[in-house]
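Researcher: Next entry: HEPN domain-containing protein (Candidatus Methanodesulfokora washburnensis).
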Amino acid sequence: VYLYSKFWLQFYTVAKYGLEKLGVGADKLFEKEEAELAIKHAERCRYVAQRLFYEVKYEESS
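Model: Predicted structure:
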């Protein structure tokens, strides 16, 4: 999860705003494959966070 966040942090501003200095929008920089990879990584992070949440919750109630 940590590596996913470090990886996508590099692209966050560019994905949101594009390259303003060059006048290139984000829609011209990223394609479907990048979006699908981002979704896959986000789903994995959500899964790990959810497992951790329920594991901690279970330990607290025991």
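Model: Note for the record: The radius of gyration is 16 Å.
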